[in-house]
Every structure is written in structure tokens, then in C-alpha cells.
Amino acid sequence: MIRLLHLSDPHFGTEQPEVMAALLAFAAERRPDLTLLTGDITQRARADQFRRARAFADQLPAPVLSVPGNHDLPLFNLVGRLFNPYGHYRTHISNELEPVYESSRLLVIGVNSTRPQRHKNGELSDRQIERVSRLLRSARSDQLRIVIQHHPVRAIEASDKANLLINHERIVPRWIDAGMDLLLAGHIHLPYVRPLNGHGQRQAWTAQAGTALSSRVRGNIPNSVNLIEYSTDGLFHRCAVERWDYAETSRDFRLYSHTDLTLDRNP
Asked: Which residues belong to any copy of the Calcineurin-like phosphoesterase domain (predicted)?
């Protein structure tokens, strides 16, 4: 079995120490094979916030694959935003803005959906879209194929439609047709799992994560993370997404929901 920990929007600079301790304990107990971090690692892209994020990531029991979020670009430092927008991210988190991880049963493709010229909206170039499509088409049938980015591609609240990735209606079906199983994102601090459709009959899924550590929770949604489990047995492919929420009373993460995903292996 492959186990993945999906974190998003920790917003270091607003992190809560008790939640951070609980999350480290949760990760140590669950022992994921890989941690996927979908952006907004910091609150204001300051060096000290990135350093704290790096220290946290180094305590996790699994390697971290991350992509930047809009908060990871300087907001008030206009010179930095113009000439070196990802400087602190590259120094403290990763020099690679669009990482790829591949094993015999897993393919994870990172996509940088941020743009220095935009305050918060996400956008992709044709080159980025084609890169992801090409990598998905090259995947093997027994690999779980995941795309990670910061901006969501499906909303369950009308107010979040303005936060969706620009041109998601054109991009997502193309990736599904190329073989994507699961798209992970964050940005809106609202966790959910929903199906996605390709141009034909093929279906995929998207899983949103809430804020992992920040005090900037959304309404009555607590800090939360996703745990993804994938296993294969011959022709059978099993995948599930579990949402784990932080409980203030016990100061630990508790299982909130379990969603079994149907994986479509017909191209």
C-alpha cells in the first residue's frame, strides 16, 4: 500500500503550535510514504516564515513534494515580487517549482499555478498544460496519477467560483483524457472530494485540503489534512481519501470522513 499525506495552506506566520505538534504526531503515527504540500506555505513570503516552514518539513517522516501558492510570493515587497518572486521559496523550500515524483506505482506531477502579476488568481500556460498531459500519457497502468497545484478546479460553494483556476473547464478534461486520476489543491481552506469528468466517459477526482496549521480557518471548518491510500491487487486498483480534522478538546487529529475513489483505467 502507498500512503500519502496531503497538506495545504499552513500559512507559516499564522501557524498554531499546538496544531503543529498534533500534526507531527499524526504523521509519525501514520508513516506516509510521501507528503504533498499544495501551496500557501507562508503568510507573507518572508524569509523567517519560510525558515519555520522548512524546520517543520524536516520533522516530517516522509519526503515533501511541494508547489507554491499565491501567498508564497511577496505582496508588499514590490521589488522582490518583480525581480525575484520565488527567491525565498527556492532558498528554503525547493529550487524546483514544478517537481515530479515517480515510482513503480505512483506518478505525482507538480504544477505552479501562481503568477507574480496576479494577486491571487491561478493560471497556466499552454506549455504547462501540455507538459502535464505528456507526463500523464507516459504513465503506466498500475501507477496512481496525481496532479498537485495550489488553485482549485471545482467549487462546491458559489463564492468560490471566482477562486477557480482560470480556464479550468478547458484544462481539466484534457488531463483526465490523458490519464489523470486525482488532482490535489488548496487555496480556499475548504476540504472536500468531488468527481471530475473528461471529454468522453473517463472520470477522475479532485481532493481539496483545508488549512493544515493556520489560525485563518474558514468558518467552522477546523484545521484538516488528507490521507490518501492506494493499493493494487492484479487488475484491481483501490484508492481512498480520508479527511482528518484537528480536535481542540483532545489536541489531536481525528478521522472525519472516508471516500473510496473509483479509478478509471480505460484511456
From this structure: 2-190
Residue 203 DSSP SS3: strand
Contact yes or no for 227/6 (Cβ under 8 A): yes
Q: Is residue 248 a part of any domain in this protein?
A: yes
CA distances to 156, 175, 181, 184 from 194, rounded to whole Å, are 9, 16, 12, 11
Any idea which residue has 481532493 for its cell?
A: 207
pTM: 0.97
Residue 151 belongs to a domain with what CATH number? Answer: 3.60.21.10
124-134 burial: b if 16+ Cβ within 10 Å, else e: beeebbebbbe
- Quote the domain boundaries for residue 245: 2-261
Amino acid at site 72 = D
CA distance 157 to 187: 14
Whole-angstrom Cα distance, residue 166 to residue 123? 5
Query: Under a CB-based contact definition with an 8 Å cutoff, are residues 33 and 3 in contact?
Result: yes
Q: Are strands 236-247 and 252-261 parallel, antiparallel or unpaired?
A: antiparallel
CB 182 within 8 A of CB 144: yes
pLDDT band at 75 (very low <50, low <70, confident <90, very high): confident
For residue 266, being part of any structural domain is answered with no
Residue 220 lies in a domain: yes
Residue 256 backbone dihedrals phi, psi, to 5 degrees: -100, -45
Kindly report which listed range (61-70, 117-126, 166-175) carries the lowest average pLDDT score.
117-126
- Judge whether 71 lies within some domain: yes
Identify the band that residue 118 occupies on the pLDDT scale cut at 50, 70 and 90.
confident
Q: How many domains does the chain have?
A: 1
